[in-house]
Specification:
Radius of gyration: 17 Å
Number of helices: 11
Order of helices and strands: EHHEHEHEHEHEHHEHEHH
Shape: globular
CATH superfamily: Aldolase class I
Helix content: 40-55%
Length: 241
């Protein structure tokens, strides 16, 4: 068995449901399939614009499915209140910009107002026993700031790696992730990665020393259209093993 856990993000099950504003496909049913197919935890992102997951989805997931729930959210009062109400097992604080198709990169911890909101979120949720992760680019300064303000975990953004073309560029981005990983572990923080990882580029990231969890959504749901969710999840789990 692999030491690297797989978090399956089900946002795009909800995207498909929202296209018709009906009850199917149901993220709760999808979670059950994913968990019986090798997923170690369920990831869901409640966005400010509610384009896919709804607060009701988190409420039902918490009540109806026995699993580890990892909530992705922005650092603001609305999302802090949702997290406090439904108590996911862990939270990843991510940046959000109006109109973006997906998260475009890690948190900007050079922005003092952002750091203030993130630090407030970490304290608020940590006091209630919720583990807090920060979605960060593989940048030493951001990782050190995350450590100083109390984060438990760093989820390294693999966007640059996953979008790099050619072996040379990909190797360069992989090295950045590896160097960042050493710092995360040196600071005794948990190490996760995610964003743009698929069946062709995931293995080198899974093999980074100290990697504990990969959070993957779009590529799994895309493959599920052709092979089914059960097969798509089990194939990904096998690859990261």
């Amino acid at each position: 068995m692999s030491d690297v856990k797989l978090g399956v993000n089900l946002d795009h099950i909800a995207t498909l449901r929202q296209a018709r504003m009906i009850s199917n496909p149901d993220p709760i049913e999808a979670a059950r399939v994913a968990l019986t197919s090798g997923a170690d935890m369920i990831v869901m992102h409640i966005r400010g614009d509610r384009r896919h997951m709804q607060e009701e989805d988190l409420e039902r997931m918490r009540k109806e499915v026995r699993c580890f729930i990892h909530l992705e959210m922005a650092a603001n009062d609305e999302m802090r209140n949702i997290a406090l109400k439904h108590k996911p097992d862990s939270v990843c604080i991510v940046p959000e910009k109006p109109g973006e198709l997906t998260t475009e990169g890690g948190l900007n911890l050079k922005d003092k107002s952002m750091v203030k909101e993130v630090e407030k979120t970490i304290k608020t949720l940590s006091d209630k026993g919720i583990e807090v992760s920060l979605f960060l680019d593989p940048n030493a300064d951001d990782i050190r700031t995350g450590y100083k303000i109390g984060a438990d975990t760093v989820e390294l953004c693999t966007k640059a790696y996953s979008e790099s073309w050619g072996k040379k560029n990909q190797a360069k981005e992989l090295e950045r992730l590896q160097l960042a990983s050493y710092l995360v572990k040196e600071l005794n923080m948990n190490l996760h990665s995610g964003h743009g990882l698929d069946y062709y580029n995931v293995r080198p990231v899974a093999q980074i020393e100290g990697m504990e969890c990969l959070n993957i959504g779009f590529s799994i749901i895309s493959r599920a259209v052709f092979v089914g969710l059960k097969t798509a999840v089990s194939q990904m789990k096998e690859i990261i093993g």
